[in-house]
Design brief:
It is built from 4 helices and no strands. The chain has about 110 residues and is mainly alpha-helical. It has one domain.
């Protein structure tokens, strides 16, 4: 390879690396950086309780739906153990969803 070919290859590598970095930037790249007070406020912000409950319910319902579709154990040597574990997880998840629904009916405040 000639020196010119090596230089072109290096420039191509730099352009590719720059594109990768560009893709990782947030959507609003023109926004000014956050000040120290804004950073502290953002780090201390807690999601509202209703949002946390909704997220937990969505996760548990998603798990139930995934279990409904079906799962398989790693081997068939301990099928009874796998079935018992599956049944326990199913029941615990159903109870969790029910408890979250009951809890979310109350007008809790943060």
């Amino acid at each position: 390879m000639t020196a010119q070919e090596l230089e072109l290859r290096d420039k191509a590598k730099v352009k590719t690396a720059a594109k990768v970095v560009e893709r990782r930037l947030p959507i609003n790249v023109n926004a000014k950086p956050l000040g120290l007070a804004e950073q502290r406020a953002r780090s201390r912000w807690d999601r509202p309780l209703a949002a946390v409950l909704a997220g937990a319910m969505a996760e548990n319902r998603g798990l139930l739906e995934r279990l409904r579709v079906g799962v398989h154990g790693p081997d068939w040597n301990h099928q009874e153990l796998y079935q018992a574990t599956f049944n326990e997880l199913w029941e615990a998840t159903k109870k969790q969803v029910e408890a979250l629904e009951i809890f979310s009916r109350v007008g809790w405040s943060d």
